[in-house]
Amino acid sequence: MGTLIYEMITSLDGYINDAKGEFDWYTPDEELHTFVNEATQPVGTFLVGRRMYETMVYWETAHTIPDQPEFMLEWARMWQARDKIVYSTSLESVSSERTRLERAFDPDAARALKASTERDLTVDGPELAATALRAGLVDEVGQYVCPVVVGGGTRFFPDDLRLDLELASEHRFNNGVVHVRYRVR
């Protein structure tokens, strides 16, 4: 059975972007990106919402951009090699390999997918993750907490959610980011 993980880079005040929808306040450096690459090795499937897919599909062709550092090429290879399920009512098609489009997130189908795989899965994007969290599907929650307060934007967690968590790991990076991962009890 796979583990379903919800994990993102956030501001210290718990936002994944600022009030303008921007994420320009932080870009992972080599140390952080390498850590994310290693942590993502066990993942076999990315479950993503439309906005997250539109951000992440960059990695489908990132290897064609000249002078990419190896740690970024490694992430691109992982993205390309993993299965992706995009949940969207507005996308007409997807442009990446190993990707299927679903119109709605079905908790029972996600539960069956978890039960049928030996690899981990991630749920990516706060709206999609909120649905999975409310359905009791998420096994682990992680945050890469950046040393910045943005004062508003899209929250990492929905306001109406309560979770009982147990600290599984923590890691500090030289750039001030702290990674915390919790198991959902």
From TrEMBL:
What GO biological process terms does the UniProt entry carry, in alphabetical order? riboflavin biosynthetic process
GO MF annotation terms: 5-amino-6-(5-phosphoribosylamino)uracil reductase activity
Highest taxon, organism lineage: Bacteria
Q: Where is the Bacterial bifunctional deaminase-reductase C-terminal domain?
A: 3-178
The record ties this protein, via SUPFAM superfamilies, to:
Dihydrofolate reductase-like
The name this protein carries in UniProt is: Dihydrofolate reductase
- Organism from which the protein derives: Jiangella alkaliphila
